[in-house]
Amino acid sequence: MFLGVVPKECLQQIIKVMDVEAWTDVHVCCSGTFRMDRALVQANPALRVHSNDVSLFSCCMAGLAIGKPVTFKFKGELAFVEKLIKGGDAITRAGAVMVAFEMARYSRRNNEFNRRHFDYYQNRFVEYVDKVRPKIEATLAQMHLTSFFGGDWRDHAKAAIEMGSNIIAFPPFSKGGYEAQFRFIDENVKWNAPPYDLYDPGDLHEITQALDDVGGKFCILTDQVWEDREPVLKYSAGLRLPHYCYAEANRSSLVRKESRAAPFKYQPVELAELRPKTEIVVVQADSATLNFIKDVYLAKGIKHVSGALNYLVFADGKLVGSIIYDEGPVTRMAYGPRTINVLSDLSVTTDGKISKLVAMIAKSRSLVHAMELKLVKRYDRLVTTAFTRNPSSMKYRGVLKKLSRRENDAGNGYVIQYGGDLDTRHALAAIGALCACQTWLSGMAIRSRLTRR
């Protein structure tokens, strides 16, 4: 919905880098859709979250979460909304703001395309409000806020310093971008908007240094690179602007994702070499080994991180690919507590059949079982993300179901979420049943060797 929402993958990295489980309080600056706030509570249910923003939608959501609904009235070009939602509750009114924000994309109406889309939303406004209601209710169920401050994020950060709280901030990347994003809403809604000073990203380095000078504990996300300060993490995907996370200067023992690569000798498999009676062996490996494979075969623009459970897949002793599993608060929040995330299921060849084989093997519960034993929990489902220039990924067709799809930020491809149930059998031999529908795989002998390299 909003520009500038923290990418899920970046959010997962932040939670793993910062010692969130040891925190008691956190002040989130520029909460937006409260994605960060919700994920923090998922990671640490006892955490007291103090949220902040200035947009009408954010204030509406926070008001509902803490039991103080915001009063406002649509006017001007949105005056028609008041008649349509008359008698509606606070959730209905928040939904109306959400739909009006989508309409704002076409509000200039300086061409036929914009006029048609604006009129389309206006004629179906109530229908769209009804559609977003379940999303709002689901979000509210995850918003366990201790407090909310409508106002300047820098003032919110100062309040955090005074009470010794941690700070997570995601201020706008461009000057005036936030105001431009919400201009149509602000011009056509009457409400008691919180005051704040226009933020200039050029001041962020100075703000960060000031937080350091007073001993602040913080994590600030930005697209800026500074010569005198090293980021504790970097997130980048495709042509999307990179995100850098800066923390306090005295933080010297951050938990980082393993990035060391450990080369090893191997022979890549070829499709023509697969025969009936081919033996598929899955071997548990460490992060360094998997990093080596990803450095070789992942597209150079893809920034990868390590997972919690790693495997190499071999066919008659030749490398087929690798599988990496992980789980975290974002996955649990979006898909439920019994869902595991496949961070990567790459193959060493571009042949689609080999890729599909690795994807099918990733569904085996026997691979996931090692993580179930470690965490003393059961997984029923898996999800994964595909980045492709096509509307669907042939790799997952017939293997997983498409859960969602959106265009990427560059507008030249898609980000697609796939998911499915894990195979209910604990033996890796169950892959044989998954492969039965593929005639080229029939007759393969499947077994596992869960040993470390």
Structural class: alpha/beta
Helical content (DSSP H or I, runs of 4+): 25-40%
CATH fold call of the largest domain: Rossmann fold
Query: Strand order of the main beta sheet, please?
Result: 15-16-14-13-12-11-10-17
Number of strand segments: 17
Mean pLDDT value: 83
Instruction: Report strand %.
Output: 15-25%
- Form type: globular
Could you please describe the fold and organization of this structure?
- The protein is of the alpha/beta class and 453 residues long.
- It has two domains: 8-247, 3-Layer(aba) Sandwich (Rossmann fold); 271-446, Gcn5-related N-acetyltransferase (GNAT) (Aminopeptidase).
- 34% of the residues lie in helices and 21% in strands.
- The chain contains 16 helices and 17 strands.
- Strands 15-16-14-13-12-11-10-17 form an eight-stranded mixed β-sheet. The protein has a seven-stranded mixed β-sheet with strand order 4-2-1-5-7-9-8, with helices on both faces.
- Helix 1 packs across helix 2 (35-43), helix 2 crosses helix 13 (329-335) and helix 3 (56-66) packs antiparallel against helix 5.
- The longest helix is centred in the N-terminal third of the chain and has 18 residues, at 125-142.
What is the topology?
Layout: H1 8-17, E1 25-29, H2 35-43, E2 48-53, H3 56-66, E3 72-74, H4 79-84, H5 90-103, H6 112-123, H7 125-142, E4 145-150, H8 153-163, E5 166-169, H9 177-181, H10 183-187, E6 189-191, H11 204-213, E7 217-222, E8 233-235, E9 243-247, E10 279-285, H12 287-297, E11 309-315, E12 318-326, H13 329-335, E13 339-344, H14 352-361, H15 365-375, E14 381-388, E15 401-407, E16 414-421, H16 431-435, E17 445-446
Parallel strand pairs: 1-2, 1-5, 2-4, 5-7, 10-17, 13-14
Antiparallel strand pairs: 3-6, 7-9, 8-9, 10-11, 11-12, 12-13, 14-16, 15-16
Helix pairs in contact: 1-2, 2-13, 3-5, 5-7
